[in-house]
Amino acid sequence: MSKQDRYRFFISKQPNRQNLRILLIHRVIFYRIRNGYVCQIVKRMDFRVLFLIFCLSATSAVSQASPPDKKAVIDSLLGRSFDEYVRVNATASLEYALEAVSESERAGYSKGKAKGNFFIGQALWSLGRFSQSLEYLHLAEQEEYTAGDPLFLSEICRVKGRAYGSLNLYEASIREFKKGMGYIGRIKEDDKRNYLTSLAYENLSNVYHMRNMADSSFYYLVENLKVLEGMDEGFVFRSKINLYSQLGREHTAREQYDSTAYYLNRALSLSEKYNFPYTSWIYLHYGNMEKQRGNIDAALVMYHKGLDNLKETKLKNELPSIYNGIVEAYLKKKEIDSAALYQEKKMAIENELTESENEALEHAIKILFAEERQQQASKHQKTLLYVGIAAAIMILLASAGWFIWDKRNKKLVAEKENEVTELQEKLNVSAEELYHLAKDNDSSFLLRFSEIYSEFTQNLFRLHPDLTNSDFFSLL
Length: 476
Prior knowledge:
It is built from 20 helices and no strands. The longest helix is centred in the C-terminal third of the chain and has 104 residues, at 336-439. By secondary structure, it is mostly helical.
């Protein structure tokens, strides 16, 4: 796909209840420009429990919902991103959207992440970064917020379709547009549903046009015409102007010049009726028709009317197409010098536009790299926080385990000491008893001695089986 074809590929807009009319203006302008709360009450708690509560609270603080005032800030950033895109300032739109996503990540605001990633993807498409655009659109599509908003889903499909088309992946592009139409059918408001249906038809017509499938392209233009004819002209006149221009282009390709003139005249009539200033696109198609049918002077008149309009609107992106038409017209007239003059002008404006696009793209890449570094730093900080919390919990658990073991060990030691004390007391009593029995020469001494020191007595008699009780008593 050529650069000029990418510029002509589909219209950028983000319709919503407040800004739909503004979006209609933006659609046509962009088409022409881009053608070509944790609280705890604690009493007498162990310090370890307090520490555990602190850790759990810190974890909760990381994932808690964003406060209303933070959401308002993020929504404001998203609004600015949208406004800049309407003004055809994709780089500024990208900056605001990146900031919105960054703040949304910290706040855990799903809507902010979804919308922000969408605006990033949309801006990247405008800057020619089609693959990166698809990555951010996928992130927007996967957000929790997105599942409940069919209008937003249709918008994601619309931009994804354009990105696939810009990569010459036309089948994927068509699938996305048709998938988007499924979401559009779930929208209850008639004006939004019809408007978005019109856009879907326009997009499908464009992608079929790029595939050189004229019948399918023309079919969706006619379907779009049916939708727009049933809507308030004052609301959709810009869409109609755009459609009539496309119909004129298709009829020229079919050499149906009367139909071409009919639709291009309707486009000019609507432009005059509603004081719509952007007519260069219409004159370009008019010039192409006249050139194709051999009316070279009439073609040059139309091309120069287009140039006059571009001087008023100060839109440069369409200049290469008109200059190209003029060059071809002069070549047909064999006016080589005039053709060379406009060829030089064409090359000069193409170089200027390419330089401008490269500067915008370089700035956008710098913004993306800066944002990626910031996100990595944020992720690193979060990782350190989680590691710190995990380490604190492990220390807490180890401390708790040591405390329990120490408490049990002290209990066992105390029990053993009590047993030893009790045994010592019994031995002292027994020794006192034996002392008095021996002193009184009591006959029960030997029996009592054997009971108290049974092991000693048994071992002695086993070693000296001939030992008598009198000998044993004498020995003692």
